[in-house]
Amino acid sequence: MTIIDKLRAAGCVFAEDEARLLTAEARTPAELETMVQRRVDGEPLEVIVGWAEFHGLRIAVEPGVFVPRQRSELLVRHAVTLAGPGAVVLDLCCGTGALGAAIAAELGDIRLYAADIEPAAVRCARKNVAQAGGEVFEGDLYAPLPTSLQGRVDILVVNAPYVPTDSIAMMPPEARDHEPRVALDGGYDGVDVHRRVAAEALHWLAPGGHLLIETGESQAASTAEAMAHNGLTPEVITDEDLYATIVVGARG
Q: Are the beta carbons of 116 and 168 closer than 8 angstroms?
């Protein structure tokens, strides 16, 4: 049985592409065999090869982290349009730091900060934002950030979990079984973390700053409501090609 046949039998939709990538990344036939078996067993491809392609960048990925999705490029695209020269950008719930790294790659002249509660994610993020001179903090939401950032953040991007708790069991196994629960579980309706982010956003945003949160189509109204309830003016933005929805909250 060929590599493609093994991957296809395991349910890999893009078996040909995955086989080419695994073959290119493996240093020996034995390593290739191990990598293929890991993929057949359901491990995310990005974790196996150690990186994910995101917005033209290779983002370092390791086991136990949330793998960046292409749909999150919608957040990057709108953050770039809103950020001015020298903007202070905060990537909250940063995971691998893909959002911040991509924004920095586009704009260059920004001051980048990031934070996540997962130690493995923080390790990855520090690698991925190093070139941009970004600082990464470990802790729950805003808690680990220096107080000197309060009132200075121009762009606050957030890809917090937004899957309702009862829906996690229906997620693909590579996400459900290999990514941290804290990066997936958004509470009973998927918006618990969004509410917590919005509740403190005004303390951190600069005048004229923006909060951008990736959300689900079903959660968008509740995410927008959380922003409005906490003094921001929300706008829901969707992209059918990316199958992505974000809510942008403006501070007046």
A: no
User: Around Cβ 252, how many Cβ atoms within 10 Å?
Assistant: 7
Largest CA distance in the chain: 61
Q: What percent of the chain has pLDDT over 70?
A: 100
DSSP per-residue string spanning 204-221: HEEEEEEEEEEE-TTTHH
- The CA distance from 106 to 122, in Å, is 22
CA distance 134 to 211: 19
Question: Would you state the pLDDT for residue 146?
Answer: 96
* Residue 36 three-state SS: helix
The strand ranges marked E within the chain are: 51-54, 57-60, 88-92, 111-116, 135-138, 153-158, 205-215, 233-239, 244-250
What's the whole-number mean pLDDT along residues 171-197?
88
pTM of the model: 0.91
d(CA 189, CA 76): 25
Condensed to tens digits (0 to 9), the pLDDT of residues 113-145 reads 999 999 999 999 999 999 889 999 999 999 999
- What is the SS3 string spanning 105-151? HHHCCCEEEEEECCHHHHHHHHHHCCCCCCEEEECCCCCCCCHHHCC
Residue carrying structure tokens 């020269």? 85
